Amino acid sequence: MTRPANADADFFGYADLLTDAERKRLAEIRDFLEREIKPLADDAWAAAEFPFAAIPKFAELGVAAMSCPEFSGTEPPRALFSGFVSMEMNRVDPSLAVAHGVHTGLAMGSIDGGGSDEQRARWLPDMVKWHKIGAFALTEPEGGSDVAQGMRTTARREGDDWVLDGAKRWIGNGTFADLVVVWARDVADDQVKGFVVKKGTPGFTTTKIEGKIALRSVQNADIELENVRVPEADRLQRITSFRDTAEVLRETRGGVAWQALGVSVRAYELARRYAVEREQFGKPIADFQLIQDLLVRMLGNVTASFGMVVRLAQLSDAGEASPERAALAKAFTTTRMREVVAWARELFGGNGIVLDYEIAKFFADAEAIYSFEGSREMNTLIVGKAITGHSAFV
């Protein structure tokens, strides 16, 4: 059957806003991900294991260099191009995209934005090459949405060292990371500070969180810190309060909106292909009105999400991004994603609950993306305060 001219998920042609060079590079990345990363992804997801064979492939792909062009010899990419790259990575496999994003966006982003010039030069070149892998430890067992005010992990200064005590939870890459950016509250001034803790530091223990139904390849860890000594040289020198932490999260929150788009795109693509190939009552199910209705609703959500994240990226490139805009994008696109994966799973019928048809993985992974980097409710309150001038946080 000839592929329809308008079968692409990018129905309004937002990729046309990229330059010719960007579109060429994006096509290369997409081909590499499909050829080199996807074959590793599905079995790893089913086994809840991280495919370490992906690490040299990530290094070969070179996307981490986009996060730190100063140490990679590349030109800084536009936010719009970076967004499309994130979308493609999540379209192929959200678990490996999240592991990649934790390393490049959260860990490297914290060091790049919060570290001194010496610290950046010491850590980032190895991280760009994936010789050192990073993690980001903010969330706590008793602190998710309220971690800014309720952080229980503490740091106290003892001479040239800091002593960290506490616990962290849901730390992606936490079981194997070489460098973990740990956020802790300074008992002297009650301000949140950032510390780079190296793997193997005494008192720093990690335990893999088992039994996840989403992002199963991501090795999330519970972390215990008991009298963990960190030299002052490993405290991120430009981090003075949680406001600095929030700046890292603002950047990554917009990135989650692109993640949600990638999941929505893949779910729509899988559903459209299944609809034209699957036959019932002697004809493809795409011939039925209710199936077309589901596909069009999915495409509408995908298209609306494209519009929001593309505009957010354009504003970022213009220096006009804001926490409120990133929060709205995250809340909107993840909600629309949840609808898309549910409709896609519905279209597959019973086949939608087995991994053979792939949609079940994306249906499950969407739940994690919907929840992290600020729940829909918390992001709603951020936007609500911006548009009313009244804070509804309690």
UniProtKB/TrEMBL annotation:
Gene3D superfamilies associated with the record: Acyl-CoA dehydrogenase/oxidase, N-terminal domain, Butyryl-CoA Dehydrogenase, subunit A, domain 2, Butyryl-CoA Dehydrogenase, subunit A, domain 3
Record family assignment: Belongs to the acyl-CoA dehydrogenase family.
InterPro entries found in the cross-reference section: ACX4-like, Acyl-CoA_DH_CS, Acyl-CoA_Oxase/DH_mid-dom, Acyl-CoA_Oxase/DH_mid-dom_sf, AcylCo_DH-like_C, AcylCo_DH/oxidase_C, AcylCoA_DH/ox_N, AcylCoA_DH/ox_N_sf
PROSITE patterns: ACYL_COA_DH_2
Cofactor(s) listed: FAD
Domain Acyl-CoA oxidase/dehydrogenase middle, chain residue ranges per copy: 135-228
Pfam family for this entry, one: Acyl-CoA_dh_M
Protein name per its UniProtKB record: Acyl-CoA dehydrogenase family protein
